[in-house]
Amino acid sequence: MKYLMVCLGNICRTPIAVGILRKKLADIGSSSEVDSCGFEPHHIGDSADTRALTVMTENGIDISDHRAKLFHPDNFKNFDLILAMDKFILDDIKRMAKSEDDLKKVDLLLNVQYPGMNCEVPDPYYGDTDGFHKTFDIIDKALDVLIEKYEK
């Protein structure tokens, strides 16, 4: 499987998701791949937010090599599952889809854990480090379910 995590700036939620999922995949010996991107061009090339780096380091995960990049229509052919952090991003992704097959690959991350509930991963950008801890916990639990659903 090839997973793509998508948020707005690709500096907070998705680097956290990628770091957690890569660790979980490595822990089970999976060869699946994961990457991330965003829709905000302002952050292209930026590293993860310092608060995200801190929370990830506290949890034993290094995401210091992360660099933000933009969503591209080629992602539909390059990834098996494209997971958005919120409804606005989900809508942006769907607008770029060119086929029903593209649309079938797209969902909200938290729909993996709570099917059909359309819950969103809160964006911690405008908050403090505590918000990043909460975001980490939300994503971590959702990715446990993803592993059970797609990797076992």
Features:
7 helices, about 150 residues, about 10% strand, globular, 4 strands, Rossmann fold, four-stranded parallel beta sheet, alpha/beta, about 45% helix
Query: What is the H/E order?
Result: EHEHHEHHEHH
For the termini, the CA-CA separation is 12 Å
What would you call the structural class? Answer: alpha/beta
Main beta sheet, described?
A: 4 strands, parallel
Percent helix, as a range, is 40-55%
Helix segment tally = 7
Spatial extent as radius of gyration? 14 Å
The strand count comes to: 4
CATH topology: Rossmann fold
Q: Overall pLDDT, averaged? A: 98
Strand content: 5-15%
Shape: globular
Per CATH, which architecture?
Answer: 3-Layer(aba) Sandwich
Uncertain regions spanning at least 5 consecutive residues: none
Question: What is the CATH domain class?
Answer: Alpha Beta
Number of domains: 1
CATH level-four homologous superfamily name = Response regulator
Q: Strands of the biggest beta sheet: in what spatial order?
A: 2-1-3-4
